[in-house]
Design brief:
mainly alpha, Arc Repressor Mutant, subunit A, 3 strands, 3-stranded antiparallel sheet
Length: 148
């Protein structure tokens, strides 16, 4: 078996599957990458040919049209390569992000409050000033029918 080329598309595909605990459907891969449908299907074939994924079409992943969606599952070979050689991160071991959900919620609340304050300012103060300026501008225009 030939050596598999480590392309940007391949890393994106593998990362998407890895982030889904080692098993991801086509729709999950699409959501996590900017790969086109053709690129995704090429990666299914390439990675399966090189023993990195197994591909199934389980009954649990049916599209709206009724067809079964492909699901890629990383093999032990792929997991060993990813974990031992830091395949996905160009030489650095991938790390899961640790998000403080409480802090994130507080930041979201602050942002929402700022948006509301800005909205209030624009809709009241700024709008009133703009309306007064428009009225002043109208008053400065010459009347219709008058000669200048």
């Amino acid at each position: 078996m030939s050596h598999m080329r480590n392309t940007v598309e391949t890393r994106a595909f593998v990362a998407a599957v890895y982030e889904c605990d080692g098993s991801a459907s086509t729709s999950e891969i699409r959501r996590r990458t900017d790969l086109t449908g053709n690129q995704i299907h090429h990666q299914y074939r390439k990675l399966e040919d090189h023993g990195w994924v197994t591909v199934e079409k389980p009954d649990s992943h049916v599209t709206e049209s009724g067809s079964r969606m492909k699901v890629a599952t990383l093999t032990e070979k792929a997991l060993d390569e990813i974990e031992n050689k830091a395949y996905l991160s160009g030489g650095q071991q991938p790390e899961r992000t640790h998000i403080d959900v409480v802090e994130l919620a507080e930041q979201l609340d602050e942002l929402q409050a700022t948006i509301e304050e800005t909205h209030d300012y624009v809709s009241t103060t700024l709008f009133r000033r703009m309306k007064k300026n428009s009225e002043r501008l109208e008053a400065l225009k010459p009347c219709e029918g008058s000669s200048e």
